[in-house]
Write the structure tokens for this entry.
Amino acid sequence: MVFNPPDKIKKLIDAKYIVLEHAHDDLREIWIDHILFSFGWWTSLLMTIIPWIVWFVFRKKESITRLLLGGLWAMFISTWLDYVGVTMGLWRYYNKLVPLMPDFIPWDFGLMPITVMFFLQIKPKVHALIKASIYAGMTAFLAEPLFIKLGYTKYPGWSPVLSFPIFIIIYLVAHFLVHSKATKPLR
């Protein structure tokens, strides 16, 4: 069976895609004219690259695969949540590293996964919920307000208080993945 929606639905959806295409064209022009190579763009680039360099130097080499699994989870979920939040109008980003991407690349691809991986490897015997709470508190109540104050983002429909439990869950899932017996070596 082939899914073939009625022509009326196709026309409605096509019209919305055209609106999106025009919005993306407009955003790309703004990015080229006002953001690319600005101070904010350069700081975003550095916030994306420097955490990975620091992690590469200070990572636990014997645990690299497990740590990357936790970091990949954090990267995946933060990118997806950013997409949802931007699409729903809960927050906005004003300084994009790459145009046409609703997420904040320095956060989703650099700061978030690296911070999670460092928390996972530092003091591994500390209870996961304690580490998750510290991580969530630092992220929700220090990092997010800082990015708002610096003008990288705006929260018209969100609050860092709402982020706190989400960050706890993100960390706990990463902890579970890193400590799972399912991540045994391939044979």
Notes: The chain is about 70% helix and 0% strand.
